[in-house]
Design a protein that fits this description.
three-stranded antiparallel β-sheet, Rossmann fold, binds adenosine-5'-triphosphate, 9 helices, alpha/beta
Length: 243
Amino acid sequence: MLRLSDAGVRFGQRWIFRNLTLKIDDLTCIALLGPNGRGKTTLLRAIAGFQLLSEGERSGPLDVGYVPQLGGNLLSFSAIEMVVMGRSSALGVFGSPRKQDYQIAHDALAEVGLLSLAYQSFDRLSGGERQLVLVARALASGATTIILDEPASALDLANQSRLLGIIRDLKKRSRFTLIFSTHVPQHALQVADETVLMLPQGQTVQGRSAAVLTETNMTELYGIPVCRVPMPGQVDAVVPIFR
Ligand SMILES: Nc1ncnc2c1ncn2[C@@H]1O[C@H](COP(=O)(O)OP(=O)(O)OP(=O)(O)O)[C@@H](O)[C@H]1O
């Protein structure tokens, strides 16, 4: 189990969050939602153990596969080399990747549907392709806790569906604890067992996704009306009402 108790992170004089207690049971899938700048990345990094807490405590595993938000640090390694880098904790400081590490990387790229781009330079991939390569890297790491920071932000609708499928498959394998942030409540409703809302005024709400993602909570979260529309035989549709 991963746990943050009375956790807080402060940058200079500014508290990003405080008094935050979060319990993540093994093998659950958790979605994290909140408005821009509210502190989701900071919280994910704290959960991963990369961000030092200013107060409170973290307990839980440290071997975490972390998929960062898509950034500008483009590297000219090939896609498969980027994925093989995910094997580094299994190889040790001086180890170099062996045939079996490349096989694992190959399988991970196949899982995200990018095998055909294995030897293309990472810096020449599209944003969505890069995002999927980073997901493959976390899969290849062998970590059983995988944290994904907005993994769908650059994905088209088909690839969002593929990503949700990958998350569902990982859940079915019953080996992984998954935590992802998103600005799309529908993603949480589709695949997350539990959702954590970082509300604008500083409170945090955690609970079963269908129970937490109410119209009232989502409207408070984003400051615009958000509706949940029943879809016969399917998960409710989440519809923001843009003005
Ligand atoms: N190392 C840092 N030093 C100072 N301020 C920081 C640092 N890292 C993040 N912040 C600030 O903390 C706040 C929360 O940032 P964070 O990236 O966690 O938000 P977020 O919810 O992930 O945002 P978004 O949805 O826009 O990605 C922001 O205002 C950011 O500028």
